[in-house]
Design goal:
mainly alpha, two-stranded antiparallel sheet
């Protein structure tokens, strides 16, 4: 039986990065637990340690495959954003409201780290309640997985197709995680793609809101406060209301665009490893 080269490469390259990611995540969990128990100095020290460990991941255990390297950096980026978001909000963390009886500190720390949109807390970043959804998230996942599989038959070298594949891959990865970790009342992570009727509507209503909280705490609020400190007009410092509506201004800074160098894609001797550049806007 011939094993696909991609699986062989995954078995060879992923164990060490995943072990270091687990180690870094454990430190961050202990940091949140320390804060919940009132140990602020320990929280600050452990948070900074976990961020340093996440940053060191691509350096200590670099991955040869470009696909794997992208996911390694994606996991590291998201983890650091999560840690910094909690640190920025350390004096006003969301309040647990999923049930009348609060969970233990250990479970609460786990929920704060595993829930991207703070679904069990108030305030949260949920756009539409699950009762208002008119589509099945597992069915949507299956449909988009089928589209992604069909696109694999398209010859390499079309940047538009490759970029769309990366959007689909992000959708599949995030939604799969969502379905594995969601609670019974958690709404869908993405909106229905077929309802998007404009580019602004796609990014504000359809695309996920995973990064809304860190963008607000790490970008929007500091920029607004700085503008106000410099005596900028209040309506400019706060942003135009059309941009603030439905978190559009909070989503666009973290949109990930994948720029493909077609001339470098699938070079002879490099096999399945394409060359592409990860660009943030």
């Amino acid at each position: 039986m011939n094993v696909p080269p991609l699986l062989l490469a995954a078995a060879d390259q992923w164990p060490k990065p995943l072990a270091l990611i687990f180690f870094s995540s454990t430190i961050l969990y202990l940091a949140v637990l320390a804060e919940l128990k009132g140990f602020r100095k320990s929280y600050i020290f452990l948070t900074l340690t976990s961020i340093a460990a996440f940053c060191a991941n691509p350096i200590l255990v670099p991955m040869q495959c470009a696909y794997f390297r992208f996911y390694q950096r994606e996991i590291v980026d998201i983890s650091i954003m999560k840690a910094l978001d909690l640190f920025a909000r350390r004096d006003a963390w969301p309040r647990y409201t999923a049930s009348k009886t609060p969970p233990s500190a250990r479970k609460l720390a786990k929920l704060m780290l595993s829930e991207w949109r703070h679904e069990s807390f108030t305030p949260n970043r949920i756009r539409v309640s699950r009762d208002a959804e008119r589509f099945s998230e597992p069915l949507q996942l299956a449909i988009h997985a089928g589209i992604f599989a069909a696109l694999q038959a398209v010859p390499a070298g079309y940047p538009t197709v490759l970029a769309f594949e990366m959007l689909l891959l992000t959708y599949l990865t995030f939604t799969a995680y969502q379905l594995c970790s969601r609670h019974a009342t958690s709404p869908a992570l993405f909106g229905a793609f077929f309802r998007a009727d404009s580019l602004a509507g796609f990014w504000s209503d359809t695309w996920h809101s995973v990064f809304t909280s860190p963008c607000e705490s790490l970008a929007y609020k500091p920029t607004r406060n700085l503008a106000l400190a410099l005596r900028a007009p209040s309506h400019l410092a706060r942003g135009h209301r059309s941009l603030r509506s439905r978190d559009y201004c909070l989503q666009t800074p973290v949109v990930y665009l994948i720029g493909f160098d077609v001339s470098e894609t699938f070079r002879p001797g490099r096999g399945f490893e394409p060359s592409w550049t990860h660009v943030r806007t």
